[in-house]
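Budget justification, computational time. The allocation requested in the original proposal was used primarily to generate structure tokens for proteins on the priority list. As evidence of use, we reproduce two of the resulting records. The first is shown immediately below.
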Amino acid sequence: MYHISRPHPNRVLLMGTHGFTLLEVIIVMLLISLVIGISAVFFVNTLASSTFNTTVRDISSSIRYARSLAQLHGERKNVTIDLDARTFSIEGKGVREIPSDMNIKIVDPLHGEIFEGKYQFIANALGGVQGGTIVLWNERKTVSIQPDPIVGSVVVQ
């Protein structure tokens, strides 16, 4: 005895649809490449902003760390920013680089704007930090780092 099966009444059978047309594949590939292109531009811009923010955070935290070391050891500590070599460091610690796509200047209360040479921030044992304001900028953003000479706090604006 043979049993003949019929298609389920809710199932629609489409004849001749066994794949995609070339036009459909091209459109999908075009959309995928468009999304990848837009996301690549977004990530490149995010990377530059991230590098800028990281450098600002590293410089300000170096000044805070020098202040903590000065209070802990009871002696002054220096943070040196070399504007020509584009580096900064805490005395006796490693040297860190400032990226080439960033500009930097020091606004000293006595000498005005300084664009070249070495500049030192001095953290004393009582907690104060002597030095001017560090100004960092690129084509999108400008940030100033200002240490407080009495309390020693570091304000990033």
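The second record produced under the same allocation is shown here.
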Amino acid sequence: MTLFLGGSMNNFFKSKYFLFILVVISISILTIGAYNLGKVEKKKVIFTENAPKAIGPYSQAIMYGDMLFISGQLGINPKTNELPEDLETQTKNAMNNIKAILEEAGMNFNDVVQTHIFLKDIKDFQKVNEIYSKYFESDYPARATMQVAALPKDGKVEIEMIACKNKVD
């Protein structure tokens, strides 16, 4: 088989034309990749003094593009750094801590798309639901609730959420 350059396929792959085409294609790919690299979303740590500082090597939340990933929040009072004894106050504190983090990221509970609730005792499910539901206006997020063997600081409830900036007003 002869090519438009005149010669066999083997000769073409050994030719300077092939090397030139390969270099041009490689430079094009690298240029496109470098251009798109500037458009890659960078993660941003979200922190507020109105929620407790992390009690381990993690952030209160991470913003990645339009998505906000909120770490599990215990019912710690951010002003005193104390965990109250009763479930109701722990639940309200956890939800208020999440509210503060959402606000720091320019969001609110209407932007929440998923929630995970961890309970020390699944029998507390209904009490937590009563408090949790008051923080949402409508369109509750997807959710999973589960009993766990233990929570940090011997908490009774821990709540984590994922939110997405609502593009439609």
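A brief technical remark on that second record: The two ends are 63 Å apart (CA to CA).
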